[in-house]
Amino acid sequence: MTVHWLAAFIDTARESADESETFWSRITGYRLSAPRGERDEFASLLPPSGDPHLAVQRVVQSAPGGLHVDLHTDDVDRLAAHAESLGASASYLDAGYVVCGSPGGMTFCVVGHPGGRRAPAATWPGGRSAVDQVCLDIPPRHWEDECSFWAGLTGWELTDEHPDDEFRRIDPPPGFPLRLLLQRLDDEQSVVTGHLDLASDDMGAEVARHVALGARVLHDGRGWTTMADPTGRAYCVTRRVPA
């Protein structure tokens, strides 16, 4: 039941899905696949080379954060059962995947779809960029439980470089397209949510490119800029060098 790939789904209400899908296709430089699913609700963002690690889903009502992750494994039922043993909820579906909720309420799916070739960073006039991280935004009351849960579920090492800081990191094995960053929020909220982070060679140029494509700047942090896409979904552009 090894986790052998990690993907992120951008979940958007149907009425604004076209705008969201166009924006994220342009930001990443990835082509939107043909839709799939019973209601054409799923599509992948296809990099020029490598396997997809980003996808979109059209939903009736977007969940808080508008994002969930998929854990790809060689044994869906066993990994889902392991998640339950760690405190997750699980709904086993005939579609071949399991919809789960972390102890703090973050939605994720356990799937059996393959993936193994990491896509290279996209190159722009201002340098390179890549969506390479999912940040889980964790309310204080769920902090320790969520950190233990995600480390135990993935089997990856939990890194706490600065014990007094609000961040911890879970690094996957080499070759994975995404890593997990855990952020302890200052204020409580109802459930754990998530957002995407991009690495960039030139954060200023990357932020300007996003603004030109319809994003808004929300906040300048220490080493990152918090943005909102045209539908209001928050994400960050960071100074991390794209792998």
Structural description of this entry:
There is one protein chain. This protein has about 240 residues and is an alpha+beta fold. The protein folds into 2 domains: about 5-110, 2,3-Dihydroxybiphenyl 1,2-Dioxygenase, domain 1, CATH 3.10.180.10; about 120-240, 2,3-Dihydroxybiphenyl 1,2-Dioxygenase, domain 1, CATH 3.10.180. Helix content is about 20%, strand content about 40%. It is built from 4 helices and 17 strands. The chain has helices at about 15-30, 75-85, 145-155, 205-210; strands spanning about 5-15, 30, 40-45, 55-60, 65-75, 90, 100, 105-110, 120-125, 125-140, 155-160, 165-170, 180-185, 195-200, 215-220, 225-230, 235-240. A hairpin with a 5-residue loop joins strand 7 (about 100) and strand 8. The mean pLDDT is about 95.
Keywords:
single chain, 243 residues, 2,3-Dihydroxybiphenyl 1,2-Dioxygenase, domain 1, eight-stranded mixed beta sheet, 17 strands
Element layout with pairings:
Layout (H helix, E strand, L loop, with lengths): L2 E11 L3 H12 L2 E2 L9 E5 L7 E6 L7 E7 L2 H10 L3 E4 L5 E4 L5 E5 L10 E3 L2 E12 L4 H12 L2 E3 L7 E5 L7 E6 L8 E8 L2 H10 L3 E5 L3 E5 L5 E5 L5
Parallel strand pairs: 1-4, 5-8, 10-13, 14-17
Antiparallel strand pairs: 1-5, 2-3, 3-4, 6-7, 7-8, 9-10, 10-14, 11-12, 12-13, 15-16, 16-17
